[in-house]
Each structure stands twice: as C-alpha cells, then as structure tokens.
Amino acid sequence: MSNDVEEPAGGEKKRRVRYGMLVDLRRCVGCQSCSVACKSENEVPLGKFRTWVKVVEKGRYPDVSRHFLPSFCNNCEKPICNRNCPVKATYVRDDGIVMVNMHRCIGCMYCMASCPYDVRYINPLRKIVQKCHWCAHRLDAGLLPACVETCLGRALIFGDINDPNSEISQLLATNPVVTLKPELGTQPHVFYIGADADTMDPTRGVDIDHVHFHEPY
Amino acid sequence: MEPISPVTVLYNAPHQIPFQLPISQYFYFTGLSAGSFVISVIAVLGGKVEYKPLGKIGAILAPLCLILAPMNLLVDMTQPARFWHLMTYLPGYVNWKSPITYGVILLSTYPISATIYAYFVYAGNQKYAKIFAILGIPLAISVHGYTGFILALGKGRALWNTALMPTLFIVSAMVSGIALMIIMAILRNVFFMKDATEEEREKDATLIHGLGGFLGAAIITDLFLIFNAVLVILTSSKEAFEAAHLLLWGKFALEFVGIEIVLGGLIPLFIVFYPKTKSSFKWLSFASVLTMVGIFAMRFTVVVGGQSVPLH
Amino acid sequence: MKFSRRSLFKYGALGGALLGMEKSFEYMANAMELIEGGREVSRTTGKFLKAVPSTCLNCYARCGNYGFTAYGGLIKIGPNTDHPNSRGRMCAKGQAGLNAVYDPDRILAPIKRVGKRGEGNWKRISWEEAYVELVSKLSQLKSQGVPEEFVFQSDRDITTQAISRRFCHAFGSPNALVNHPVGGWNKRVAQQLSWGADYEVPDVANTQYMLIFGSNPYEAHYLRTSFVQRIAEARGLRQEGTLIRPKAKMVVFDPRLTQTGGRADEWHPILPGTDAAVALAIAQTIMAEGLYDRAFVRDWCNVSASQLEKYLQGHTPEWAEGISGVLATDIRRIAREFATTRPATTISTGGVSKHGNGVQTERAVALLNAITGNIDVKGGYCLPRSFTFREPNPLPPAPRVRSELLHPSDFPTALFEVPPRVLPTIKERKAKVGVYMTYQYNPLYSRAEGPFLEQILKDEELIPYFVCLDSVYTETAAFADLVLPMATFAERWELESPPAFEMVPFVSLRQPFIMPLGEAIGFTDFLISLAGRLGGDVAEYFNFTTRQYLETQISGIPGLVKAGGLEYLKEKGFWFDSEERPRYRRYAGRGFDTPSRKYEIFSKRLEDAGYSGMPAYEFLPITENIQEEEFHLLVYQTRVHTHDRTANCMWLTEITHDNPAVMNAETMARLGFENGQEVQIVSKIGAIKTRLQAVQGINPKAIAISDNVGHTEFGRIARAIPFESDVKTTELLWWKDGGVNPKPIVALKLDPIGGGEALMDTKVWIRSV
Ligand SMILES: Nc1nc2c(c(=O)[nH]1)N[C@H]1C(S)=C(S)[C@@H](COP(=O)(O)OP(=O)(O)OC[C@H]3O[C@@H](n4cnc5c(=O)[nH]c(N)nc54)[C@H](O)[C@@H]3O)O[C@H]1N2
Ligand SMILES: Nc1nc2c(c(=O)[nH]1)N[C@H]1C(S)=C(S)[C@@H](COP(=O)(O)OP(=O)(O)OC[C@H]3O[C@@H](n4cnc5c(=O)[nH]c(N)nc54)[C@H](O)[C@@H]3O)O[C@H]1N2
Ligand code: SF4
Ligand code: SF4
Ligand code: SF4
Ligand code: SF4
Ligand code: SF4
Ligand SMILES: [Mo]
Is residue A8 part of a domain? Predict the structure, then answer.
C-alpha cells in the first residue's frame, strides 16, 4: 500500500483515508448475517446480493471440513469497472470506495461484464447497476458498514489502512493475508486471513456445465 | 478414488450473465457492416468497372447493418433513455478510457462517412467515393475492432481477455461481410439482371466466384486465429482452461465446434475450394449462409460462453 | 468485568511482547475506529433515524436490537451494541425481522371460518364480533361448570407463560400449556433431575475445551447470536489481564458434518442415538485413571467416586466403540484431554435431546462436567442466571381440578406437561376440551405426524371450538374456527431475562417500534381486553394496563426500580446491575435445587419409576438390526431459519428454500442412486418426495433433511410463489422449489422419561420415483 499523502493548502500534511476490509476466516461462522444485514441496509432486491457467503465442504469421509468465503466488492485500487464505465457513472472516492452514480448509469452492464469478482448487479427496480460500496452513507456518518457491525464471529474488520494504528492495519501488518485473484492486477482491498484455496477457486466443487446462473430480469 | 480430495460447493449465490443475445447480435451486425464496407471499398478502389456492382451492394449494406447494430444496444441497456449520456462530451462526463466511448465516437462518425460514401458511389462520383472510401476504411475496421476491445478489456473473463480478440473480431467481420456480399451478389445476379447481357452476367458470375475465393482465404485466417486462441487458453489460467472446456467439449460444444467450426468454417471452406462446388451459385450461397450462421455462433459463444465460467 | 466492549483494552497496549504471535485476541477490544451500533442513517438524507431499543424474538436467544423508524414506518432492525448478551450482533434471522413485520401475507384482521373446518373459507369480522363470540363460548364453559375445558397452548415457556397462566387460572382452568421449550423437553427434564435448573449456560468465552454432543451452535442453538460469538472468540487467542489464553479446542460428535463440526478441531460422525455410550466411556476413563475432581465429587455429588467408578466399570471405550462407531483410542484421548484441560465444558442440545433416550443421554453428558469439577466455574458448565418477574397481586389460585393434559399419568417422571401428547390425549378422550386456544404455535407444521394431528384438529366433536392467535396464516390456523391477528415482536411490550453470558443477570425490554399493523394487537393487551369482557373474577385479576403489568413485573428488582424502572428500560433496552461482578459456584451456599441439595448423579425419582437411577445408555430400537438400505433420519435446523416462523421472511427463504436429503456420497454410489436424483424417502408412516444430495460429511447410516421449509400454508414466499405486493421485490422471487416438510414421515415417538419428542429416531429407506 502506498503511503498516500496529500498536501492541503495549509501546508500541513494530512493523510489520505483509504478504507479496507479484512475477513478473518478463522472467526467466520458462515452465518450469512452479513448478507441479510446488507439486504436490509441497502434495500437489495430479491435475487441480488452485495455480499454472500460461499459454503464449501471438502475432504473425504470421515476427514471432512467446511470452509466459508464472504464476498464483497473489493473496492479495488485499479478497478476495471471504473476504467470501463463509459459515462463515468462509476467513480472512485478519495477514500478508495468505488461508487456508482445512480443518475448517470445507463445500464450498459459493461462494468458487470468486466469485474472479475461478479459483485455488481442490475437492480431490477431502479434499472441501474449497484454493488457493495462499504456502506459509504454510513461511513460518512461515522458508522461502520452494516455487515461489519453485525458479523456474528467478528470476522469482518473494517477501517483505514493508511492509519498505522487502526485495527485493520495492525492485523494486515502481522498476519498472512490473501486477496482474490491478485494476478489480475485490480489490487483488491478486501483481504482474507485463513482463506482456503479450494474455496477461493471459482471452478472447484461445481459442475462447470451446470452452473446455475440467474435469469436476467 | 480420485487423486484429489472432493470439494462440494454447498451454497453460493446465483449471478446474472450480463451480456446476452442482444450484445451478440450487436457484435454480429457491426461485423457485417464493417465486412461489407471493406469489400465495397476494395471494389471501388480496385477501379475495375466490373467491380462496381459489388461496391454498390456493400455501400448499402454497411450503413444498413450499422443502423441495426446500435438498436440491439439500446434494447439491452436498462436505461435506454439515457443513451445521450454517452455523447455528453463535456469534461468529466465521458470516460475516454472506456472502449464503449471509442465505440460511441466511431458509431456516430462511421455511419455518416459510410452514408456519404454510399451517396457518391451511387452518384457515380468516383473521386469523392474514393476519398470517403479511404476515410472510411480505418473507421470501419475500428468499428469492429473496438468491439473486440470491449471484450479484451473485460478482464474478469478469461476467454475475452486476450490481445487476439480485436484481430479475431476484424477477421470474422470480414468473413461474415464477404458471405453477406456473396449472397447479395448472387441474388442480384439471379433476380435483378434479367435484362443484362449474357456476357455481363458471365462477368458478374466470375466476380462472385472470385469473392468465394476471398471468403475461403478469410475463413482460413479466421480458423487459424481461433486455433491460436484455443491453444493458448487451453494452457494459460485455470479459468481459461474451463472456458476452453465449455467451448470444446462442454456446454457450448455444439455452438462452437459444431456450428462455428464445422458448419460455419470447414464445410464452407470445402465448398469454396472444391472444384465441383466452387462454381455453383447454389453451393456458394449455401456456403455463405453457413458461414453467416457460423459467425453468429461465434459471436454468441464468445459473448455468452465467455461469461459462463463462474467468477467466484 | 465490563460489558461495554468499547471500553475494553485497545490493541497496541500489548506492546512488543507478542511480536511474531498469531494475533487474533485483539478482536475482543472494539478497536474498529467507527461507531459500531445503535445508530442508523438515512440513505437519502444522511440524517440519523429515530432508534428504539428492544429485544428480538425471531428465535429464543432474545438479542438486544434497535428499531429504526421514520414517518411512522420501520426502516431497519439493527443490533444493540451495549446489550450484555448479544453485544451488538444480530443473526440473519434477527436482521430479517423487518420481513416478519411487513410480511405481505400477514393476517391483519380477525377472520372467522365459514363452511367446513379446514376448507379454507373465511369471513372477515370485526374485533368486536370476535370478542362477542369468544366471550360467549368461554362463558358457556363457565356456566356449565367446566372452565377446565378451556385449553390454552402457546409457543415455548418464555415470554408469555406467566400472563397466560394467570388468565387460565383466573378463568378456572389449569390448562395453560406450552410447546416444547428450547433445546428440547428432554434436556429440561434431565437438567432438573441432575441439578435443579432448566438448562445450562456453557461459559464458552472463557473455556479452553468444548466437547459438543449433537449441538450445532454455528447454525442453531437456542442462544444463537450470544453463544456463537463467544465461541468464535474462544477459537482465537484471548487476552485476560496480562495473560494470553490459547485458543480453545472444539470436538464435535454429530452424525452430520455441520458448520460447527466442519470448523472444529475434530469431528466424529457418531452413530445417531449412541452419545450416552461415548459419554459414559469418557466418564469411565476419567474415573478409572483418577483424573476426576476429587473435591467436587466428594462434596457435591450424591454418589461417591468409588461407587461411580464401580458403576462405570463395564462402560469401556471399547464397549462404546462397538455401539457408536467412535474409535476407542479417540474416546480415551478425548477423556484425558477433557479432564486435564481447565476449564472445559460440554455443549449438548437437539442431537442429544431429540431422541427416545434423550433424558439419560443428557444426564450422561452433563455427568462429564460434574466429575471434572467444571460445574458453575468460570469457563465451565454454568447454572443460568436470570431474573424472575413478579406477578400483580392478588394471584389467581391454581384450580384444583386434576388435568390429564398438565400431568399425564403415563409420564410419571416427566416433571412437566408433555406438549406433543396434548392433542393425542384429547383424541384418546382422556381430556375434554371446550375451547382450544393456541398462540404462536403451529403443531401441524412443527410437530411429528402432522397428518395425524390434523385429523384431531379437524374433528369438531373432539375440539368444538378452536381459536388460533398468530400473525401468520399457518398450517394450524387453517383448521381454526377463529383466527385473531397478533402483533409481532416488533410491535408489542414484553419483559425478558434470558440467561446471562456475562453471568450477571439482566432484564431486557421488548417494546414496539411501530404501532401494530392493521388490526393486530399485542398478546397482553388481548388477554386484558378479553378478561375485561368476561367480567367477574377474571376481570378482577386483570385490573391493570399492559404498562402497569410490566411495572409490577420489575418491581421486585430494586436496582432497576432505582435506576428509573420502565423508563430506564425504554431508553436503554436492558438493565443490569453494573456494580455486580460475576459470581461462580453459586451452589456453594444453599446447594443445588435438588432433593439431596447435591448434584444428583443418581436420581431416586428415576429409579422409583423403574428406570436406571444412574445415567445410562439406553438402546434405541431403531438401531437394532438396521438394514443396509435403511437409514436414521436426522431433521435439523438451518442457519438462516427458525423452525417455521421465518419461512415467509424473503431474505432468509431466498438463502435456504429447499431441503434435499443429504446422504453420504459413497453410500449413494453403492446403492446406485445419483446425486440430484428425485426420490421418495419412506418411513413406516409415510413418504415424502425430495432430491438426493451427495456429501462426504455424513455418517453412512444417516440421511439428513432440514427443517424450516416445505410449507403448505404460511404465505406465498414460504411456498415459492412470486407475487406483486407493497413489499418491494416479492415479484422477483426466483426459486422454484419450496422444499418439503419432513414431519409427515417422523412418527410421534417420545422419550418415556421426559416426554420430549424423539424427532431424530425415524428409520427410513429410499425409493426411486
Ligand atoms: N438457526 C436456527 N437456530 C435455532 C433454531 C432454529 O430453528 N434455527 N431453533 C432453536 C431451538 S427451538 C432449538 S431446540 C435449538 C436446536 O439447536 P441444535 O440442537 O443445535 O440443532 P438441531 O438441528 O436440533 O440438532 C443439532 C445436531 O444434532 C445432530 N444429531 C442428530 N442426532 C444425533 C445423535 O444421536 N448424536 C449426536 N451427537 N448428534 C445428533 C444433528 O445432525 C444436528 O446437527 O436451536 C435454536 N436455535
Ligand atoms: N423436523 C423437525 N421438526 C421440529 C424440530 C426439528 O429439529 N426438526 N424441532 C422441534 C423444536 S426443538 C421446536 S422448539 C419446535 C418449534 O416449533 P414451533 O414452536 O411451532 O415453531 P416456531 O417457528 O418457533 O413458532 C410458532 C409460531 O409462532 C409464530 N410467531 C412467530 N413470531 C411471532 C410473533 O411475534 N407474534 C405472533 N403472534 N406469532 C409469532 C409463527 O408464525 C409460528 O406460527 O419445532 C420442533 N419441530
Ligand atoms: S471488485 Fe469489481 S466492482 Fe468492485 S472495484 Fe473491483 S472491479 Fe470494480
Ligand atoms: S452499467 Fe452503469 S456503471 Fe456499469 S458501466 Fe454501464 S453506465 Fe457504468
Ligand atoms: S459494506 Fe455495506 S454495502 Fe457492502 S456488503 Fe456490507 S452492508 Fe453491503
Ligand atoms: S456475518 Fe461474519 S461470521 Fe457470519 S458469515 Fe458473515 S463474515 Fe462470517
Ligand atoms: S439469535 Fe434469535 S434473538 Fe438473536 S438476533 Fe437472531 S433471531 Fe433474533
Ligand atoms: Mo426447540
């Protein structure tokens, strides 16, 4: 992470806030409270999710285990969705959150087709693209994102990764973390501790010819 | 027992495939347009009088297909009434980095230049026709090339995210464009040249047979590019391999191997080169129809198949 | 000890001493820099919304929540950060409480049956008409001198028991009955016999070892949110003072790989119904190897160490292996670990209690805590701490008529009524009913052998008048004569005192976020009006308002009264004595609440009734010569639902809407079935259709079908029918399969000791269709 420093007019150095999310899978209980909290907070319509928790079973009887993977928008440092949105409906806030301007979005779905994490969806009522924005409206009011607040296992840790004293920075500094598909260079800002490779692999454990895709509305 | 331990996904959320049939059709029509324009231009620039009719057909088809193409886009957009957002060329409004923006520019300039071109071709003004032909060529190629960029920059999809994509799209545009031209030319020859002389018709026929050769060449290039693409995706990332699986022996095998490669590639190739069939209008039009169907299958498998590998 | 998580230490205070260590303990501190709960901001205006603190009841954990309102509507339900039990967490079901309030299929007006019972034809009537009818039916019983023929049965015994008992007694009927309590009836009976309390609170946050028998706290458990968050905490490093506690070990016995088992250190796919054998073998090892807590056994158990050792002699790990399939070496190792790791606790719920040997198995499991001295110690197996509420005086005396419903004569050891026997007892004409009233109880969905119960409810001779109080049109309501719309937990007043995890009892208030929708009314308000209309004695005993009733309830808690009583609760949502510190070994003064004042390893009551007085492994007939192609059917709870009550919550049903029969992949292959194949699951009493799902994580002798889905009434979301409504996006309901209710093939079998349902004792086989 670069140490972004802005120089405001006064000359006094102010650090840029850069939010990040850390998912500690050692603590996740796979309860889906995050998914439902988000539905309630952001009026996410049926059929769509801003966060969902993949549940995987692996191993051979009797040596079997279960693994979880909550997914969010990674609010990438190099968001391909933002690069590709033709009308600047997708834009990036100073704190790194990738936003969608609901009045500008034309619903071309190019961002959905380009995002490597499939975290965007068309809201069938508003007819625009939406996605997890780390509850920017809550952050602006000084509140934690709704999913983080309610997480049963306290597996979701959220904060400013540019603040060396923040809990998330401390954890990032002292734990092995991974992100999803780092090879794509999007620089995701959702970090995982204890993630399982088989669970992170989108093609493991599914019959690729019979994946159930959602009907478009 | 399998060597690796079993993994079962017990729960996951279903996702929507964003680009569906309309986008495939959009790509198809831009391809047709670009292809027929280029053939028309070659005819016009070639300067020979006997090519003229071809130039005329192409000049009509190009803008026509280009009117159909964006219709598909409008239908697909969830906010079609906001299409003008795409053309608000004010600072901060349009994203110059997005391939769709290149497309918007191209889609608004190319039809204009193509129409002007068509006007001059029909007006018989060779000089201006040539100028607009030269102007139009890069536009036409870009119009289709950019659609390749749309996919190539969709970095989430292993099948799309390759530098080959724009070239592949241009070549396949040529293939479908030539095929369309052949059909049109044959129709003209059979139905609209009633009062032409035998010689004229003969000339026209050789011309069409020549186009058949063109078609063959384009198909070979196309197949070669597809071969390259497939060979690489079979061995690059895991997602890419899964995409190859879907196309080669999975869910899209019928569309890809069956329709695109065999029906739309190998069989027409055989027809246009096999001495007994290559000079028959019937066979030639049959081959062209097959090719057009094949290219449509290609658009569909690339667009929808490319998004059928789960991302999470 | 402090409840506020914010005020606990901050990360960083630990200094460099921990460098290089795995750092997860810091989660105990609320180090996240943003505010965690109790506030909600409007997405459109950015302004804070009005927040009303209350208590969730989408399951029995009763977490602290907030209702956020604007323009008289409920916008969101969120967690209460300061709540001592749930500490700012709320599970998926609690979050979806909003769906339960704005359920587009809710009953919002009284309806009266027209046509035959169960035909489904209704007439909307006014509350006035409803009261007139109800009063006339009840007065008739009174004038005939048979007030005991008024039978009331409600959902478990937590919120409403006191006031409904008051009503029944005032009316002259002893029959204030409840449904199964949380964790199963058998557990309650077992616990009462052993240590005189209804259930235990495993102090998991402070424990070092969790030995789990048939419990699935990651997905279910009756204290869900408060419980699992503390388990998650124990599964990492924790700091206590200057001490760092290593992560607690978790060992799970469950025939099915649950989310708990799947994340545990060890999962043992035990054969269903055989936990007592394993528990006794663990006890045997501990006793034989002298690893037991001498002082506790000597001072606080009613059996001496040598007696116990002698009793356990034959119960070796090898013996248990033969019964349960759990390796003797594992049993021995676990016994040693459990006895030598301090503190340690067992956790056991449905998988133990919902069997025909539930009481004995539960007693065998609890025994492990006793012999290792983990009873009511920090990090151990603790007695519940909660407040009891006062009742307004005068209290109506309990009617002296004997009730076969309340004290079934064929269950002498049951201690309490036997809820699943209520309708069958009526059918057998051992009890006469004039008016049957249910509140928040849906036996036709949740009880075993629903179709059989349906016949009883349908019979107007057996049950001349049936009133169903609910907020949803349930399977049971479909057979009622009168259905009255009740307020949901978001619209009514109640006091709660759930067992405290921080070991300091607290009071939690449930208050309305909004006025009840439509014509729905709160249960307390309903009883008060009904009593008023009945007049006479009954009215005398209900001469108060709901507010006065609540005030009386807490009047016996001086600290709370001093703090401001109800007004304090209305503002904060809960109250506890902030001066009080957790006290452990609470039995040390007066002893346990048992006849001997000791922890009763040996129960005279059981022996007198002809059962083993010592905890014993009771062989279940189903296990006997079970054939190759026969299976134990396990019915279990899923992580996003509570029994039937959440099925019409769209955000939950979207996640879990179907319930394939989960089966061991190898067994499936061997028997020639295919993953995903449509099959019939057949038991002695019926068959259901579902599809098979192959997994690795299940005992080859078991098949598991989840509870919670497969409704035939209850609402359109529960039945997977898309429709347009005022609630946004119900028209987008996308799943086609609404699941299947497993109960019609679960025979109504009970543990003869406790009277609890043996829901997991069904033998089934598979037929292809
Ligand atoms: N999400 C959710 N939470 C709930 C509820 C809910 O409906 N949904 N309901 C609440 C209520 S009322 C209750 S009673 C509790 C129940 O909570 P739990 O008791 O935790 O849940 P159950 O699913 O009843 O059973 C637990 C496990 O026992 C296993 N089992 C079955 N037979 C045996 C056996 O013979 N031996 C062993 N070792 N295991 C066995 C099953 O596979 C199952 O995984 O949950 C409460 N919390
Ligand atoms: N197959 C299978 N069956 C089981 C079990 C199992 O594990 N497997 N578990 C058993 C156990 S342990 C239990 S405890 C029982 C539970 O069985 P039930 O007690 O019947 O189920 P609940 O869903 O808890 O609640 C019953 C009713 O309360 C209503 N209700 C909920 N909230 C409100 C409210 O705020 N106001 C009003 N008026 N009504 C409300 C719901 O609409 C529902 O009709 O099921 C048992 N049945
Ligand atoms: S995860 Fe996808 S939608 Fe989110 S910022 Fe990255 S590329 Fe964009
Ligand atoms: S759908 Fe909306 S946000 Fe996405 S690329 Fe198109 S205009 Fe931008
Ligand atoms: S941060 Fe907010 S928008 Fe994102 S998943 Fe969580 S609740 Fe939803
Ligand atoms: S709420 Fe927390 S514990 Fe539950 S599934 Fe989400 S991340 Fe995991
Ligand atoms: S655990 Fe139960 S009481 Fe707590 S939030 Fe969930 S549903 Fe509500
Ligand atoms: Mo229960």
Answer: no
Ligand 3: residue of A120, A121, A180, A190 to mutate (most ligand atoms within 8 A of CB) is A120
Residue-range definition of the domain harbouring residue A160 = 15-200
Residue C292 and residue C372 in contact, taking contact as beta carbons nearer than 8 Å:
yes
Residue A214 covered by a domain: no
Cβ(B209)–Cβ(B182) below 8 Å = no
Under 8 Å CB-to-CB from C625, ≥6 apart: which residues? none
Q: What pLDDT digit, counting tens, does each position of B158-180 carry?
A: 999 999 999 999 999 999 999 99
Residue C262 tokens, joined: 């799947």
Q: What angle do CA B66, B70, B76 make, to 5 degrees?
A: 150
The ipTM (two decimal places) reads: 0.93
Nearest ligand to the C-alpha atom of residue A33: 6
Reply yes or no on whether the pLDDT at C17 is more than 50: no
Cα of A167 to nearest chain C Cα, Å: 6
CA-closest candidate to residue C94, choices C119, C149, C57, C145? C57
Q: What is the pLDDT of residues C295-323, one digit of tens each?
A: 999 999 999 999 999 999 999 999 999 99
Ligand that comes closest to the CA of residue C79: 7
Same fold, C200-382 and C621-768: no
Q: Is residue A90 part of a domain?
A: yes
- Integer Cα distance of B135 and B128 in angstroms: 10
Cα of C624 vs centre of ligand 1, distance in Å, is 24
d(CA C339, CA C364): 15
CA pair distance C193, A176, nearest whole angstrom:
50
Q: C200-382 — its CATH code?
A: 3.40.228.10
Give the tens place of pLDDT for each residue, C428-481. 999 999 999 999 999 999 999 989 999 999 999 999 999 999 999 999 999 999
Q: What residues contact C346, with CB distance under 8 A and at least 6 apart?
A: C202, C210, C211, C212, C213, C365, C366, C368, C369, C381
Q: Which of C254, C353, C617, C655 to mutate to test the pocket of ligand 1 (most atoms within 8 A of CB)?
A: C254
| Pair C466, C458: CB distance under 8 Å | no
CATH classification (class only), C621-768: mainly beta
Ligand 1 within 6 A of CB of C216:
yes
Q: Which atom of ligand 7 is nearest to the CA of C62?
A: 3
User: Which tokens go with B101?
Assistant: 């923006």
Whether residue A156 has pLDDT greater than 80: yes
CA distance B181 to chain A (A): 31
Domain ranges of chain C: 1-34, 111-180+392-496+516-564, 200-382, 621-768
Contact C33 A160 (CB under 8 A): yes
- Confirm whether A5 is domain-assigned: no
Q: Are strands A52-60 and C702-706 parallel, antiparallel or unpaired?
A: unpaired
Contact (Cβ atoms closer than 8 angstroms) between residue C441 and residue C431: no
Residue of C nearest to A160 (CA): C33
Q: What is the pTM of this model?
A: 0.94
What is the residue-averaged pLDDT of chain C? 92
Nearest to A168 by CA among A4, A7, A22: A22
Is the pLDDT at C28 greater than 50, yes or no?
Answer: no
| B152, C744, C763 from C687: Cα distances, Å | 54, 8, 12
In this structure, whether the domain defined by B21-76+93-307 belongs to CATH 1.20.1630.10 is answered with yes
Dist CA C406 CA B17 (whole Å): 59
Tell me, what CATH number does A22's domain have? Answer: 3.30.70.20
pLDDT band of residue B47 (cuts 50, 70, 90) is low
Return the SS3 of A120. coil
Q: How many domains does chain A have?
A: 1
Between residues C711 and B196, the one the model is more confident about: C711
Instruction: Look at the domain C111-180+392-496+516-564 and name its fold.
Output: Rossmann fold (3.40.50)
Among C525, C642, C479, C477, CA closest to C99: C642
